Task: inverse folding
């Protein structure tokens, strides 16, 4: 299995940490998630210019039944799925790509060039995994929308612009992220998944297999480095 597919499956499989979520449900969203990943990877946008990227995700979330507010903090968005009483859980994905030239030689490699904020023509690539995060978030959103009889509360999905320049989060907060919208009881990055019983588990990078596992975040820089080393050792 190519590395991109293995990684995407690894992120999606985190959703299966719930006893209520089945492999069949994951299989049902995987083709669209993979297609979205390829589309976003081939069409990256620079920080604070993620207009098409945000629009694609917002459209998919609306079609899945979410209440979507666009242009939060610039090109960011907030999507809500309300399902009765319960906690408000926030999941976040980044939207932006980097001014990096892709030299992977892949069939879906980015060939995009754009003007940066200084007016320079630069190559653009999703070199930091944000394309993968977005595809995983949308797939998780689809599963949660289809299984509302197994959980209660509010799911709050965030599309954060300009993560690479560190300005997007501040812009969204200044635009009322936590005043215009429900204040989350807990917020996680898109690698985390919600179970239908409000139990939480995290998919670990070293477990890029079909088996989800519970684990803590790296407690030391050495542990984090070891995890990254093991991740890179997985054959493509």
Result:
């Amino acid at each position: 299995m190519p590395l991109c597919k293995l990684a995407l499956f690894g992120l999606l499989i985190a959703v299966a940490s719930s006893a209520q979520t089945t492999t069949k449900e994951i299989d049902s969203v995987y083709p669209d998630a993979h297609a979205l990943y390829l589309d976003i990877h081939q069409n990256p946008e620079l920080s604070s210019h993620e207009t098409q990227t945000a629009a694609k995700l917002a459209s998919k979330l609306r079609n899945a039944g979410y209440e979507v507010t666009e242009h939060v903090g610039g090109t960011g968005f907030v999507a809500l799925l309300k399902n009765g009483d319960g906690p408000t859980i926030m999941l976040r994905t980044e939207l932006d790509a980097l001014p990096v030239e892709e030299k992977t030689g892949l069939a879906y490699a980015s060939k995009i060039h754009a003007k940066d904020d200084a007016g320079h023509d630069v190559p653009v690539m999703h070199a930091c995994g944000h394309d993968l995060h977005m595809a995983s978030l949308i797939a998780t959103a689809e599963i949660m929308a289809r299984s509302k009889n197994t959980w209660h509360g509010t799911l709050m999905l965030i599309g954060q612009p300009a993560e690479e320049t560190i300005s997007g989060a501040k812009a969204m907060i200044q635009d009322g992220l936590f005043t215009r919208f429900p204040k989350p009881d807990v917020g996680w990055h898109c690698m985390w998944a919600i179970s239908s019983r409000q139990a939480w588990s995290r998919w670990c990078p070293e477990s890029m297999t079909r088996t989800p596992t519970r684990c803590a975040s790296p407690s030391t820089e050495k542990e984090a480095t070891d995890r990254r080393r093991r991740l890179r050792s997985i054959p493509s």
Observations:
- The chain has a mean pLDDT of 78.
- The chain has one domain: 3-232.
